[in-house]
Design a protein that fits this description.
The protein is mostly helical and 387 residues long. Helix content is 48%, strand content 10%. The chain folds into two domains: 232 residues, Triger factor/SurA peptide-binding fold (Orthogonal Bundle), CATH 1.10.4030; 103 residues, Chitinase A, domain 3, CATH 3.10.50. It starts with 38 loop residues before the first helix and ends in a 5-residue tail after the last strand.
Length: 387
């Protein structure tokens, strides 16, 4: 079993490693200017119809991604690493599962939680390996494998950019070799994590190429139908974003003097002077400490001071309200943004939001169909639960 790190180094930054299917944020960048083919085109090449069912009748395809220059997956098997599962004859090692689960394992409190995390991660890796095997089988032609290897290189570079370099920056280390040794000393197997990340990247790019044609069928009619059938999702409450300057009686010779000074500020604001600058210069409260001199509260019942609520909800965007008095002084308020109760307008922003929602749902549905079909024809053997 791999040793987990206990020091504070990397504890927060390692959260950028997303190893589950769908977690590689850079997958959309795979279509780089460095090359032009994509899976959608390559899957149409002659001879790309080989299925996972046919594949498992032959000698299992070797993994095209190695663990690194020092040691390959095959060499780990040779030296007796524990096999957690096999997928059509391909081994998944216990070390791979632990590496993929390293982030949630850091947060687990009990052995039961750790076991659940490891078993869930094992299932994710099994599904990813099924997708990788299917991609390799379909792209077995020479031109397809050239593309596959190019995509592997891009995925490897994206790992450096999105994971390794960000982690180094967060820990203020500039030397890759030094940082790699630091990771190794803390029990973080970077080559295994790299391998998981890269394979997830490729599997998701392959999956996307198969599903994208279905997603492109979602059009304006489907978006309108969703908007009409789910009004509760597009309800908005009365809301106001506002600015505040407080003039305290105690800072002036008398309450009347404080009032006169506050009214002079209102006149200056209405003549075009910058509200935020005046707040920083003259505010006696805490609004000047907040960005844009924002007032407290946005919805009814939340506004502070309570005397300002009724006036704020009567103002339009950009309007400065009348002076608001309370026991300790005077408030000068201006509305920055006003949202009225009702339904969100069916504008471009809402349409994009609905389109993304529909595509995400369709993607998850199609992904499950593809993975379940691959499972149905695969030979999967799983060892007992990790302890």
């Amino acid at each position: 079993m791999l040793r987990l790190p206990h020091s504070r180094l990397l504890a927060s930054a390692i959260l950028t490693s997303q190893l589950a299917l769908g977690g590689c944020q850079g997958a959309e960048k795979a279509k780089s200017h460095d090359f032009h083919p994509d899976f959608t085109t390559l899957l149409k090449l002659p001879g790309s119809e080989t299925s996972a069912r046919a594949q498992k009748k032959e000698t299992p395809t070797r993994s095209i991604l190695e663990l690194g220059e020092e040691e390959s997956l095959g060499e780990q098997v040779t030296r007796g690493a524990r096999i957690r599962a096999t997928v059509n004859g391909e081994a998944i090692l216990e070390e791979e599962v632990v590496a993929a689960a390293i982030q949630p394992l850091m947060q687990a409190r009990t052995e039961e939680e750790k076991a659940e995390i490891l078993n869930a991660k094992l299932q994710e890796i099994i599904e990813r390996e099924l997708l990788m095997q299917d991609a390799i089988a379909r792209l077995s032609k020479k031109s397809g494998m050239r593309f596959f290897r190019e995509l592997e290189k891009i995925a490897d570079r994206e790992f450096d950019k999105q994971w390794l370099y960000k982690l180094m920056q967060a820990n203020k280390v500039s030397d890759v070799q030094v940082f790699t040794r630091m990771l190794k000393d803390q029990g973080i197997p970077i080559e295994l994590i790299r391998r998981q990340w890269v394979r997830n990247f490729i599997a998701m790019e392959y999956l996307r190429s198969r599903i994208d044609p279905q997603l492109n069928k979602i059009g304006h009619l489907e978006i309108v139908e969703y908007y009409d059938k789910h009004p509760d999702q597009f309800k908005v409450e009365d809301k106001v974003v506002w600015q505040n300057i407080f003039i305290a009686n105690a800072r002036h010779p008398s309450p009347e003097a404080a009032r006169q000074f506050a009214e002079s500020l209102i006149a200056r604001i209405r003549q075009g002077e910058d509200f935020v600058r005046l707040a920083k210069q003259f505010d006696n409260g805490d609004s000047s400490l907040r960005e844009n001199a924002l007032g407290l509260g946005n919805k009814r019942g939340e506004i502070q001071p309570v005397e300002a609520e009724e006036i704020l909800f009567q103002l339009k965007e950009g309007e400065v309200g009348p002076l608001i008095a309370n026991e300790t002084g005077y408030h000068i308020v201006r509305v920055l943004k006003r949202t009225y109760a009702g339904l969100m307008p069916f504008d471009d922003k809402v349409q994009r939001l609905i389109g993304e929602t529909l595509k995400n749902k369709a993607f998850q549905l199609e992904m499950r169909k593809i993975v379940n079909e691959l499972k149905r024809h695969a030979i999967i053997e799983i060892a007992t639960d990790i302890r």
